[in-house]
Design goal:
Number of helices: 23
CATH architecture of one domain: 3-Layer(aba) Sandwich
CATH class of one domain: Alpha Beta
Mean pLDDT: 95
CATH topology of one domain: Rossmann fold
Radius of gyration: 26 Å
Strand content: 15-25%
Helix content: 25-40%
Low-confidence stretches: 1-37
Bound molecules: beta-D-glucopyranose
Strand order of the largest sheet: 14-19-18-17-15-16
Length: 748
């Protein structure tokens, strides 16, 4: 009976989100009819421009192609060194009037090359009747990673591990500056998917498993990237990715099917997008996957009813890579490419990242002429595209590229170093093994000891981040940074020689984890570490020398069997180019670790539970309530100093929410940073409440002996959830607040 009931609820949820295609169509058609009667919200400049454009001009604007198709060579296999192809430029940019180009032809270029090729593209774009400039978009993911020598920050999961939104803002600022310095005005970041499945190969591209933390990091990053005026010479348009429901596929693999009930979708996966929209994010990229049996690129309920009507987004929606084509050959909901274009454009797509097939504008034009796509839909899309081009200042002269003297400046790199240091999470430090003395003789082993690529991960120089040829010159690996600091005291050995080399070492630093990947190539079949790495660490532990594990990874690989016999463990979620220095600074105590886990670290491959699980997840097989048993909890992380919490006060406020305050004291001998985390439990609710939810946090810097009081206002809105009718609701009642080890109750 219970089973039937929940199935029934799931069906209702699916119906609302769009499992039922007939309801989807009729609702959406109604909306389109309504929208079509309204004036498009475009400036007089864009209105005037559009009045002079032909249909061919307009469908060209809606097309986004890879730079491959205007370069010498074949797509995915360009001739080196990269050069633009004059005949292709004319065909694509003048004859077909393609409005947007993306990507690099396989690898990073110098900023001079970027500026030169974009200039050339603009000179061709000017030759078409409308003269509208090209909008170039690039994956600037943890810095301007496709421009050689740029400043590379930790990846998003590492940024989230800092629990310091100011650093995310800085990353947004530096990335925007260096992207514009490369002549590019549009960055495809941040990822706003919530990383609630540890297996997903793009977990490290998220801000972790918690919506509240991700919202804070994302809005800070976007404000850094866009500022108040995206036409400024140091700002770019951001792109919220990937709307919606990409990160939790059934099998944990990239772009697999997802089944997400509406309640979960609204409560866990939508708020980051809402917060980013409210923060002014200009563009959105659509989820490549399918949700509840409908590819998101074909789902008007998501792209129009939710994104536009409910969340109020007015900017540009671009597809992800080749996703219109995938409606035919992967998802099987369209008979051919033309049919797929009809479906996607009618569902609400404004621009198609085709990215290699120049037939898109031709077929779209035919669809309009055949009455299968309305001109109003085209105008709506083109209005958004041209508004963005106008806002970005593309119709005005661009700033002289040689004036970007702060590109990869020492100051920017120092910001990346601070971010990297704050991103490292110390999860074990028995007997205060760390910090080490610079006099210690250290043996450094492991496959991540001497590679910059593993510190950076995917989207670094190349898509997969595996080609060392494009690494930033002068940046140091962990081994190199340690050697630079302590010279001959640092030894290294291959796996074969490691045991004998350990004899002359006082301490062993084992650098293990993952090698770079993203998207499909990053799919794995289990979270276990490979046997070679486990064997190496076990051999090191058997030597009896203290072993320090440095785990560099994009998702939490299982380390259960290595934990007990390791004296200290630190985790780096792809700390970027400065990762080697940051880890060295932490090993020697020149930086005090302050990172905290932005995800729950699982102990077992098959026991993947987030911190905000339900009461039923607590029930253990022995019927105790000890069923939640991760390796380390979300929010966990150690410091070289100690902090004490006191005087937790929780009071109902005039607005019906709560005021929380707590005093934090640095009781150790070192200056350090503490992340104050406010977890709230809703004791009884009409939808089963999570055991706790993060409702506030603050990162404090405290000198030894210093105290401060952190204050939080937690509103009723913060405490609301998606109720039985799938609307947000606040239910008064008893709440329990936990900060550190302190607990207080309050009735609201
Ligand atoms: C990824 C996006 C990326 C796009 C453009 C896709 O494969 O899913 O995140 O922005 O490619 O490179």
């Amino acid at each position: 009976m219970k089973l039937l009931h929940s199935y029934y609820l799931l069906l209702i949820a699916c119906f609302i989100i769009g499992c039922n295609s007939s309801s989807v169509l009729s609702d959406s058609q109604n909306r389109v009819a309504n929208v079509e009667t309204e004036e498009s919200p475009v400036s007089p400049f864009v209105k005037d421009l559009m009045s002079k454009m032909t249909l061919a001009d307009k469908v060209g604007e809606m097309t986004q192609l890879s730079v491959d198709v205007i370069s010498v060579g074949d797509p995915y296999n360009l001739k080196e060194p990269h050069t633009l192809d004059v005949a292709k430029l004319k065909n694509i940019l003048v004859d077909l009037r393609v409005g947007s180009i993306l990507n690099c032809g396989g690898h990073a270029y110098t900023k001079e090359h970027w500026n030169a090729i974009i200039d050339t593209m603009q000179s061709y774009a000017k030759q078409k009747d409308s003269g509208i400039p090209v909008l170039y978009g690039i994956d600037a993911i943890h810095g301007t990673n496709y421009t050689q020598g740029s400043t590379l920050f930790p990846q998003q999961l590492g940024q989230a591990a800092t629990w310091n939104p100011a650093l995310a803002k800085t990353c947004g600022e530096v990335t925007a500056y260096e992207t514009r310095a490369s002549g590019i005005p549009w960055a495809f970041s941040p990822v706003l998917d919530i990383g609630r499945d540890a297996r997903w190969p793009r977990l490290w591209e998220t801000y972790g498993e918690d919506t509240h933390l991700a919202k804070a990091m994302a809005t800070a990053y976007i404000s850094g990237m866009e500022g108040d005026d995206i036409s400024a010479a140091d700002k770019v348009a951001s792109c919220m990715k990937h709307f919606l429901g990409y990160s939790v596929t059934l099998r944990g693999k990239d772009r697999g099917q997802a089944w997400i009930p509406e309640r979960q979708l609204l409560e866990y996966f939508t708020p980051t997008f809402q917060a980013a929209i409210d923060a002014g994010a200009k563009t959105v990229m659509i989820n490549s996957g399918e949700m509840n049996g409908i590819p998101v690129h074909a789902n008007e309920k998501i792209l129009v009813d939710l994104l536009r009507t409910k969340l109020g987004f007015e900017g540009l929606a671009v597809t992800d890579w080749e996703d219109v084509g995938y409606l035919v050959n992967r998802h099987k909901i369209a008979t051919d490419f033309k049919d797929a274009i009809r479906i996607a454009i009618n569902a609400g797509i404004d621009m198609a990242m085709v990215p290699m097939d120049a037939s898109f504008p031709v077929l779209l034009k035919e669809l309009v002429e055949e009455g299968k796509v309305s001109e109003r839909r085209i105008d709506e899309a083109v209005g958004r595209i041209l508004s963005l081009k106008e806002e970005l200042g593309l119709f005005k002269p661009t700033q002289d590229p040689t004036s970007y003297t702060e590109f990869a400046s020492k100051a920017s790199q120092a910001k990346a170093l601070t971010t990297a240091e704050e991103s490292i999470v110390l999860v074990k430090n028995d007997d205060n093994t760390l910090p080490l003395s610079t006099e210690s003789k250290i043996l450094v082993v492991g496959k991540n000891a001497n590679t910059l690529n593993s510190l950076n991960g995917g989207w670094t120089g190349t898509w997969q981040g595996t080609d060392a040829k494009y690494n930033t010159p002068g940046k140091r690996t962990i081994l190199e940074a340690l050697q630079h600091r302590s010279g001959a005291k640092i030894m290294t050995a291959t796996a074969d020689d490691a045991v004998s080399a350990a004899a002359s070492a006082e301490v062993i630093v084992a650098c293990i984890g993952e090698t770079p990947y993203t998207e499909k190539p990053g799919d794995i079949d289990d979270l276990d570490l490979d046997a070679d790495q486990v064997a190496l660490v076990e051999a090191m532990q058997e030597t009896g020398k203290p072993v320090i594990l440095v785990v560099i990874e994009g998702r939490p690989r299982i380390v259960r069997e290595l934990v007990d016999a390791s004296k200290a463990i630190m985790i780096g979620f792809l700390p970027g180019d400065e990762g080697g220095e940051a880890i060295t600074n932490i090993l020697y105590g020149e930086a005090n670790p302050s990172g905290r886990l932005p995800i729950t670290y699982p102990k077992y491959s098959n026991d993947l539970v987030t911190y905000d699980h339900k009461g039923t997840d607590l029930v253990h097989r022995d019927f105790s309530m000890n069923g939640f048993n991760p390796q380390w909890e979300f929010g966990y992380g150690l410091s070289y100093t100690t902090f004490e919490y006191s005087a937790l006060s929780v009071m109902k406020n005039m607005a019906g929410g709560m005021d929380v305050s707590v005093t934090v004291t640095n009781t150790g001998d070192l200056a350090g940073k503490e992340v104050v985390q406010v977890f709230v439990t809703d004791e009884v609710a009409s939808i089963t409440p999570a055991v706790k939810r993060l409702r506030g946090f603050e990162k404090l810097a405290l000198e030894p002996g210093a105290s401060t009081t952190s204050k939080f206002v937690i509103t009723k809105e913060d405490l609301s959830f998606v109720g039985r009718d799938n609307n947000w609701i606040f239910e008064p009642g008893d709440f329990t607040v936990r900060v550190g080890s302190l607990v207080e109750k309050v009735k609201l």
